[in-house]
Automatic annotation (TrEMBL):
The keyword Coiled coil does not apply. Gene3D superfamilies: 3.10.20.30, [2Fe-2S]-binding domain. Its EC number is 1.-.-.-. Residues 79-155 form the 2Fe-2S ferredoxin-type domain. The lineage of its organism: Bacteria, Pseudomonadati, Myxococcota, Polyangia, Polyangiales. It is an enzyme of class 1 (oxidoreductase). Keywords: 2Fe-2S, Iron, Iron-sulfur, Metal-binding, Oxidoreductase. It comes from the Bacteria. This is Oxidoreductase. Residues 1-32 are annotated as: Disordered. One of its GO terms (molecular function) is metal ion binding. The keyword ATP-binding does not apply.
Amino acid sequence: MPDKRSRSLPLVGAQAKRDAAGAPNIGAGPRPASLLTRREFTAGSIAAATAAAGGLSALGITCSAPGNPVSDPVTNADATIRLIVNGASTEVGIDLRSSLLDVLREQLQLTGAKKGCDHGQCGACTVHLDGRRVASCLTFAVQADGREITTIEGLSPKDGPLHPMQQAFIDQDALQCGYCTPGQIMAAVACVREGNAGSAEQIREYMSGNLCRCGAYSAIVAAIQQAAPASEGT
Ligand code: FES
Ligand code: FES
């Protein structure tokens, strides 16, 4: 049976070196059209990257090649985006691969959102993007360009009273180490806003993406039930 993989995969390693050097490929016969030399493969990759950069330009995002920054000569940023974080508009130079979580924590010093798993499995990094909860570790910062982000730092006014959900977590003692708490509170506010806090069972279901290693789940549900009436519409 013919080996399909050998016909469809690009050449790598010693085989590619022999082809690139023009050396005879003894015993292999004529090179099938589907096989790529290293040079062809590289040219294709560059064309794809150029097309991607063009797409970002169309979105109004400034790009430059790594090591040749145009947006921020200090940080070697690939792009400059505008984020509206907790009501304040800010421009930030980013690496295109950066997650929203890393930009918030490491560039804007908003360390309320926590990095638990960095894989979208624990909910510790939950923030609101245009009013909806997202796992900021799984959200590219570039996806948030021009959009509104709310973190735990912006949930209540700086000198004002706590948000009802924050107060309820305190009242119900719904935390132990506190590491998951900012994510729990942001998810809880969204849970109420979505209309998914009608019963303890429903709260457990719609908060199931937020893990608490300390096991404070019963108190978290109680806190959400306490805050739900006052949190609607917030
Ligand atoms: S850090 Fe984002 S889901 Fe765990
Ligand atoms: S309070 Fe410790 S992980 Fe939730």
